[in-house]
Amino acid sequence: MKFLILLFFLSFSLYLNGEDLRDKNGSYKGSIDSSGVIRDKNGSYQGKISDKGDIRNSNGSYQGKIDSDGSVRDRNGSYLGKVQSNGDVRDQNGSYLGKVQSNGDVRDKNGSYLGNAKGIDKEKAAIKFFFPNF
Fold first, then answer.
1. Which residues have a Cβ under 8 Å from the Cβ of 89 and sit 6 or more positions away?
2. Count of Cβ atoms closer than 10 Å to residue 36 Cβ
3. Per-residue pLDDT tens digits for 73-87
């Protein structure tokens, strides 16, 4: 019984951490946990974003990087865009793509709601919403 209670509280605390990715309708799309592990909506491992910003797919192959200044680069080092400290996301030409807000809401360049990534670092959330090739 103690084990079940502990399991319940652990599950509930993970739920409260809010590491879920949700689309504009609130449907669960996957998660990115605090260690950077990316899972799809079925819980399947999709890859990882390391503490150093390296992005790897489910096979461990290097896909790109988020630099410490928020710059996003592909596997060849080409600049794709940037996640600014205020959550603004820009493409390689500096054009505004949208924003990851402090409450986790993600909005496109017109302010339309794209979904939510509450509890997920804005850089990691931006990768999933604005740079979907990763």
1. 81, 82, 83, 96, 97, 98, 99, 100, 126, 129, 130
2. 19
3. 999 999 999 999 999
